[in-house]
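Risk register update: the risk of archive-format incompatibility is retired. Evidence:
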Amino acid sequence: MQISQDMVVSIHYTLTDKAGETIDSSVEHGEPLAYLHGHGNIVPGLENALTGKTIGDKFDVSVEPAEGYGEHYAELVQQVPREAFEGVEHLEPGMQFQADTGMGPRLFTITEVNGDTVTVDGNHPLAGEVLNFAIEVTAVRAASEEELSHGHVHGEGGHHH
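Archived output:
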């Protein structure tokens, strides 16, 4: 069965950066990633590369930023006063928070705390990066009506309600 729109696909993946360092791996977690093909559950470049593949296929794919987590936008890196974090006693790099912006809610990561100034970054941590995936397709099946109506996989490797 080939991977196409509305199929539930399970893959083992290893994601590495340009230096070959592992960023994430389903192999390390022990369970394949299950997703609903054609519903934006994974980055577009990887989803496109999986189209037409079948169980047992193994391949490597590099996904450019535009088809991954997007370009890195300098304007999403801002310095804000410490007082903007009212009620938060301790701030440190790596902490994340959600803020309402003119374009809706956005996740920000603190990258630096320098006295009363906090630098935050609204880019995805992998924005601007080429994503290098090693993929093995482990299962392909038709999605259930419930999965299609919810837009994600249910059961093993998927969402549980």
